[in-house]
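Form 7-S
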Amino acid sequence: MTNWTTGVCEANGIHIHYQRTGGGKPPLVLLHGLTGNGACWTPLARALEGEYDVVMPDARGHGDSSTPRHGYSYEDHAGDVIALIRALGLSAPILLGHSMGGMTATVVASLAAQAIRGVILVDPTFLSPQRQREVFDSDVAEQHRRLLGQDKCDVLAQLRSRHTHRSPEMVELIASARLKTRINAFDVLTPPNPEYHPLISAIDVPILLVVGDAGVVSLEMARELQSRHSHIQVELIHDAGHGV
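Output:
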């Protein structure tokens, strides 16, 4: 990790902060979910840095990236990723996105498939219109607003009790990321999400869809997507929830 660098690139009138392992290897861009940031990928990046130049951006409204007043749709997030790829001169990167980052990666791949080599979608937010409305109408944003007023020690204690199977390092990274997520970022939950079937049809690079036993995308839904789109490979992680 000693050779990792941090930087900021200009994208669509804002600044996107990122970490990068470097080293002239094939590029891999990791896109986090809502309330995460690039640093949350540290353990995975450590495992992959020998083979890949891993780039870990903070999405707008997260981490050390800008927080514009408006502009948190998936199209906005995707535009930032495309601008980042161009600004860093990344040649045919693989995109790996989790949750919100998975939907963002799907939009990026549908718009700029010629610029990437493949896409890995880890339990992306492929939600039915009804589920989108339920999430939007829920108190998740209000819960986060309350969390932002708490001390980091309290947030850590809550996360440790809730995620007993996670490493101390991961819990620390998640706590730090949540406390650096601005409330504006929750605008991404505003329905409707992009329609994922047409997006996937527009992607002509290989797709790996990774799901858990108890995540957003069920194995049945993953298999149904695979039956309709031949370029999708599905991987099931047993005993895993949304945080695959």
